[in-house]
Amino acid sequence: MSFPVEIEKVFEQRSERVKSVDLHPTEPWILTSLYSGTLCIWNYESQVMEKSIKITESPIRSAKFIVRKEWIIAGSDDKFVRVYNYNTMEKVTEFEAHEDYIRSLAVHPNRPFVLSAADDRLIKLWDWEKNWLCAQIFEGHDHYVMQVAFNPIDTHTFASVSLDSKIKMWNLDSPNPDFTLERHSKGINCVDFFTAGDKSYLVTGSDDFTAMVWDYQTKTCVQILEGHTHNVSALCVHPEFPIIVTGSEDGTVRIWQATTYGFEKTLQYELGRVWALGSMKNSPQIVIGFDEGTIVGKVTCSRSWEPSS
């Protein structure tokens, strides 16, 4: 059964190419990282830029808030991870983390850990309480590792996706993957977790123009989301509403039901290719990063997630 989903645009900012977006959980801030090597914090309520800092001449493909430390962390094509205090914008640390472009960062929800993934085919676990010690190196992909994501149900585990067309599940104690999922016919760019009812799922987006929903406990693909006409470059499952949001190099954002997998609508903002999507708990917002800027939309939906039994 279909249900209405509306996305009201509440913020639009033109900029150079946006490679990642993140939402602050308590402030009306979005963090954007740009291909030009700049980090920006925008206030989507007042519509003003709170902070901006050029940290490198290289593209910054991933940047995240670490709110419990009042930090932002960024990974870039110059192979460095850099950390800044987001109040003062003073640098906390920087270190060379990989031997090639850094594609993705993931911050552990409660432990002092950050995962980084890169074109050197490696994933690394960093512990900031041990002076950014590399606590584990995860090996197994045969091509660039495009994104990593912690499992919110079991935060000792995480998923990775790669241009080798494989999805791998890992736990923090082992350098080797627990298992691998394969079905996409081309490289995979993005991954997210979600729970529907009592079951947990993965959703992945690929250069084969599709997104796929996986029951990773049975290791099966349960749905293929078809409709984009170019690479699926970004996706997220909204924590507040049962919708899957996919973004593509075709310039569109598509909304799908996360329970029936039915297609709901296409959004087009004429800002070029989509490179990043973000949402968070306790917020109706969704953030979209494009070739030419950033959009924040407010989601209204007649349905919310059913509580797990």
What coarse outline follows from CA principal-axis ratios? Answer: globular
Strand content: over 45%
Q: What is the count of DSSP helices, taking H or I runs of 4+ residues?
A: 0
Radius of gyration: 18 Å
Major beta sheet, specifics?
Answer: 4 strands, antiparallel
Structural class: mainly beta
- The residue ranges in which pLDDT falls below 50 over 5 or more consecutive positions are none
Instruction: Tell me the number of strands.
Output: 28
Average predicted confidence as pLDDT: 96
Q: Element order, helices and strands? A: EEEEEEEEEEEEEEEEEEEEEEEEEEEE
Describe the structure.
- The protein is globular, with a radius of gyration of 18 Å.
- It starts with a strand and ends in an 8-residue tail after the last strand.
- With 309 residues, the chain is mainly β.
- Strands 1-28-27-26 form a 4-stranded antiparallel sheet, with no helix packed on it.
- The chain has no helices and 28 strands.
Question: Strands, helices and their partners?
Answer:
Blueprint: E1 5-14, E2 18-23, E3 29-34, E4 38-43, E5 48-54, E6 60-66, E7 71-76, E8 80-85, E9 91-96, E10 102-107, E11 113-118, E12 123-127, E13 133-138, E14 145-150, E15 157-162, E16 166-171, E17 179-182, E18 188-196, E19 199-206, E20 211-215, E21 220-225, E22 232-237, E23 243-248, E24 252-257, E25 263-268, E26 274-278, E27 285-290, E28 293-301
Concise summary:
The protein has no helices and 28 strands. It is mainly beta.
Key words describing this protein structure:
309 residues; mainly beta; four-stranded antiparallel sheet; 28 strands; 0% helix; globular
